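Hello,

Our lab assistant flagged a job as stuck in the queue for most of the afternoon. It eventually completed. Since we weren't sure the result was trustworthy after the delay, we are filing this so someone can double-check. Below is the sequence as submitted and the structure that was eventually returned. Let us know if re-running is recommended.
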Amino acid sequence: MIMRFFKDRRFSVLWAVVRIWLGWQWLEAGLGKITSPVWAGNKAGVAVGGFLQGALAKATGDHPLVQGWYAAFIKSFALPQAKLFSYLVAYGEVLVGIALLLGTFTVFAAVLGALMNLNYMLAGTTSTNPVMYTLAILVIIAGANAGLIGLDYWLRPFVSGLVGKNWRAGGTQAQHAH
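-- returned structure --
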């Protein structure tokens, strides 16, 4: 019964609204970053480095906000690659935003957005991340229905022909034939 809420085409308008709101949030955040020199300019890496240092500071004390394993990841991998992560975050947010706004490869974009939100939360940042993460998971569960009102409506048949699978909302080709 609850899966009907996610898979019934009549709810595709709701999922389009959720998807578009998420897309706008990502696009707005990403555009702010790609226009900032400390994210994607001549000082790229400064902002993400500060964010990561702040996350490391939250990994101490009796009740750390950042788990030790994640702090180790930050210290040994992310911080040494701060400039790369700066560009990945900035342009990743923009691309996820555009894909969700247009309804293009919706589920893939929602998965990438959820992964970014998860990493922000693991780094001890709350803000809108729990809300965006939860909505992204719901969009993923809605699957093809979330992109039905979007470019996925036209892309799905084309991609299906390329990969030999049917990605239509609501089931497989065999289910539609009966």
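-- support follow-up --
The delay was a queue issue, not a problem with the job. The result is valid. Confidence is low (pLDDT under 50) at residues 172-178. DSSP finds ten helices and no strands in the chain.
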